[in-house]
Design brief:
- This protein is mainly α.
- The protein starts with 14 loop residues before the first helix and ends in a 13-residue tail after the last helix.
- The chain is elongated and about 45 Å long.
- The longest helix has 16 residues.
- It has two helices and no strands.
- It has a domain of 44 residues.
- 38% of the residues lie in helices and 0% in strands.
C-alpha cells in the first residue's frame, strides 16, 4: 500500500471506535448536519512518517495554491 493512500473504512477501527463514529453520525444527522465524514481511519507508521515529513524535508501541497 502506498504512503499516499488514505484509508476511510470504518471496519479498520476497533469496535468501540466504530460505535462512536456511528453515534456521532446519528447525532449530527439529528442536528441537521449532513456534510460530515471521517477523513482517515487507519494510518500505517509509514504513512504517518510521510505526513510528518511534509514541510520538513520535502515540499507539499495544501491544495490552497490554485
Amino acid at each position: 500500500m502506498s504512503v499516499t493512500t488514505v484509508i476511510r473504512d470504518l471496519s479498520q477501527l476497533l469496535p468501540v471506535a466504530q460505535t462512536a463514529c456511528k453515534l456521532l453520525f446519528q447525532e449530527c444527522y439529528k442536528a441537521g448536519i449532513r456534510d460530515i465524514f471521517i477523513t482517515e481511519t487507519y494510518r500505517t507508521q509509514e504513512r504517518q512518517n510521510y505526513l510528518y515529513q511534509q514541510g520538513r524535508s520535502r515540499p507539499h501541497s495544501t491544495g490552497a495554491e490554485s
